[in-house]
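User: Modeling request: complex.
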Amino acid sequence: MPIPNLQVALDHSDVSSAVETAVIVGNEIDIIEVGTVLLLEIGSEVIKTLRHIFPDKIIIADTKCADAGGTVAKNVANRGATWMTCMCNATLATMQSATKEIEEVQVELYGNWTYEEAQTWLNAGIRQVIYHQSRDALLAGETWGEKDLTKVNKLIEMGFKVSVTGGLNVDTLPLFKGMDIYTFIVGRGITETDNPIEAVRALKNKINEVWRD
Ligand code: 5RP
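Assistant: Request completed. Predicted assembly structure:
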């Protein structure tokens, strides 16, 4: 089974701290995400800065796009994004128009969605989904559990590359042991620590330790 990737989510509210963190962790992380918070606060120009610093990295624009997929995709792709995200409740037309303008679209799974809908995304050529525990649900007391692992496993069986995210840290990663997780997406568990590079190394070590067996 491949070793899962590690993605940093830059959800800062200002450019300088986002870029500073990216420079610190960028060479040891597999994927850089321009987070929704950062995109909403600063705008997609920040993607250009990150692309300039990291010409060869996968950079994801976490647009959580719900409409105007083609335009949003074209804009972020022009600024250097490799992939972008669409909400699971966007229409298939939105997702399809986005896929014409950018290398890949990842579907963000929040709230209510069905496996039948997921099959229509696969049929439309969408290969990636992000299984999300929302920040607000976690704050309200939700935790990762069996119900999540069952859904993640089913999505993997269907043929998706599944990334998971939401309050993850070194203690929660082993919950997914034995599962073919494509990418672990970690925001605050890296960016809000005293030492982001040490946090990245600890996460990478944990991933290697759990998935090497
Ligand atoms: C919020 C997001 C976050 O970027 C992602 O879930 C990482 O967050 P966390 O700080 O919980 O690790 O997409 O919608």
